[in-house]
Amino acid sequence: MKKGLFITFEGLEGCGKTTQAKMLYNFLIEQGCPSVYTKEPGGTKIGQKVRRILLDQKNDGMDYKTEMLLFLASRAENVRLVILPALEKEKIVISDRFYDSTTAYQGYGRGIDLKTIRYLNNFVVGKAIPDLTFFLDIEPYEGLRRSTSFGNSREIRFEEEFINKKIIEGKLFLERVRDGYYHLFREEAERIKIIDANRSKEEIYNEIVEIVKRKIADSTNSI
């Protein structure tokens, strides 16, 4: 390949994206493909500190703009220190969330101006544009049920907020976020692949692996 391959995983809480991202990473390593796994928020020393701020229940009164800018700060460090260096070495980068999360959650969910979000996302990521994105789709309340019941590291502040979020234009917060992901899919259907998350993790994994194999083959053939 001329460059590395950048794969991102997106979806609502409880959809299983973290599990699938790690399973794909392990598969690629087993196949001898140089790969890197990262996540948002996090991925770097500063990113982990930002993550703790965002998930702290004591910060439940945080302004939406502050929240968005913290996510972007974590992303800027991740791009600079992890993602771009790995891509330049022709590695495959797998990220558990990336800029689509900001558009879906802070844009469609919170109602922050989408043009502003697009500008800031572009400013932060530069050339680090995903080649392939998996949107693991699940009904919001089923996702929350899975997340709060079975999660080993519950992101409490967000889950409590999601459950109690007020209705805007007839829809709850996570319903608006899910709609946002579908808007993104319609705009970039070639990049974003919708994966039915209402199945066993093995079924989901097998579908993802087949798509990634085809993507790698296409990238190799294009040299």
From TrEMBL:
The keyword Plastid is annotated on this UniProt entry: no
Residues annotated for ATP binding in this entry: 11-18
Superkingdom of origin organism: Bacteria
Gene Ontology molecular functions: ATP binding; dTMP kinase activity
Domain named Thymidylate kinase-like: residues: 9-208
Keywords for the protein's UniProt record, in alphabetical order: ATP-binding, Kinase, Nucleotide biosynthesis, Nucleotide-binding, Transferase
GO-annotated cellular components: cytosol
Alphabetized InterPro entries for the sequence: P-loop_NTPase (IPR027417), Thymidylate_kin-like_dom (IPR039430), Thymidylate_kin_CS (IPR018095), Thymidylate_kinase (IPR018094)
E.C. no: 2.7.4.9
Reaction(s) catalysed (UniProt annotation): dTMP + ATP = dTDP + ADP
GO BP: any one term: dTDP biosynthetic process
Entry similarity comment: Belongs to the thymidylate kinase family.
UniProt cross-references to HAMAP family, sorted A to Z: Thymidylate_kinase (MF_00165)
Function of the protein: Phosphorylation of dTMP to form dTDP in both de novo and salvage pathways of dTTP synthesis.
Protein name, entry field: Thymidylate kinase
Organism: Candidatus Infernicultor aquiphilus
